[in-house]
């Protein structure tokens, strides 16, 4: 039997009527002759509520219990989806991660897949079941504890199942009808893309476009999964949505194909840190050990101090997620107290956002950065930090200008035009 993976995100299973609507889409694929693996998220808002309960109960929580609690949202929707399908005369059953068993590492709240053995689910398909409804976002560690994959992880569950079961396609049903040139909630001019290259989607996702979890795109790229994003609220067919595919399946691509943003960024600067070999390792080692996800790093020009003082000083700036600022601060102050380095001041700016333009066309076109900077200058938006790679340029700006800046870049690179 050909097999499809269909994933429904939180808004697509937000209540019983939406679960019915999603189940009808599954039933239609079964009627076309597919066996279907359905991956479900928790009802929208549920995971946030569960995380809140954990944090209120225990601020420095045991990550194993965090996973035990936050994974439960998906268990509810998996059961409800199986029941709804049964009511529609579709032979279906639910699967929690451990029942498959979805084997992951033991990195709680950020686990990665180790293996998804097919045998149990295949045996049920062989018995005549048409649909396996699997709770997304979760797995089981080698120690037998429940794990979760990080926020948005059901996308990754879906792609991993598509790879493990050699699915014909992996359809990600969500509340937008595809991948857009930028977040359609921010820019009314955002345009839906029919196709997007894996590399571009990977950059957009990792730079903040939460329509797909970054890891899901990585897996799809590695295992050549045909990945599609489409709306669960519209009538859809095999041409709907956006196909995420190899670069050579895209006829023409623009220099810039999308604008991404990330709101919860913070910028920290160690002012006048001694500039000597090993200083970066001395600073970023303890940050890494503390689990801080450092993103952009800028080291300023080195200056010597007063005449006669041979030492050189520099400013070291980095960005990290806002909710890791306290941890980063502690790691730096502890390292300073241990004598690893000294600095004059530690300046934190938590009101910044990261804005990025992405496009594989940048590989062969010069001048994209200059156009981006000119567009921001025209809006009087100050750039605080810049980083580039082969197919993206990112800047940090004041958060209050983020929407304005997204629109300005969207206009400059004419992303509203096909
Ligand atoms: P789900 O609950 O289905 O997993 P998410 O909320 O995780 O859905 O992702 C869908 C959301 O991603 C959309 O509602 C949209 O606001 C946001 N988004 C951000 N960037 C983009 C983009 N470039 N294209 C489409 N959606 C985007
Ligand atoms: N429910 C989880 C979350 O909100 C996983 C997901 O929806 O993909 O992050
Ligand atoms: Mg999501």
Structural account:
It is a single chain. The chain is an alpha/beta fold and 418 residues long. It is built from twelve helices and 19 strands. It has helices at residues 16-31, 46-57, 63-70, 72-87, 119-127, 154-164, 198-206, 214-223, 279-289, 325-337, 368-378, 402-412, and strands spanning 3-8, 35-40, 92-95, 103-104, 113-115, 131-135, 138-140, 146-148, 169-174, 195-197, 227-231, 242-245, 258-274, 297-299, 303-304, 312-321, 345-358, 385-389, 392-398. An eight-stranded mixed beta sheet has the order 3-6-2-1-9-11-12-10, with helices on both faces. Strands 13, 14, 15, 16, 17, 18 and 19 form a seven-stranded antiparallel beta sheet that branches. A hairpin with a 7-residue loop joins strand 15 (303-304) and strand 16 (312-321). Helix 9 crosses helix 10 and helix 11 packs across helix 12 (402-412). The chain is globular. The model has no long low-confidence stretch (mean pLDDT 95). It binds adenosine-5'-diphosphate, aspartic acid and magnesium ion. Aspartic acid (ASP) binds next to helix 6.
Largest beta-sheet details: 8 strands, mixed
Q: How far is the first residue's CA from the last residue's CA?
A: 38 Å
Total number of beta strands: 19
What is the tally of helical segments? 12
Oligomer: single chain
What would you call the structural class? alpha/beta
Which percent band covers the strand fraction?
A: 25-35%
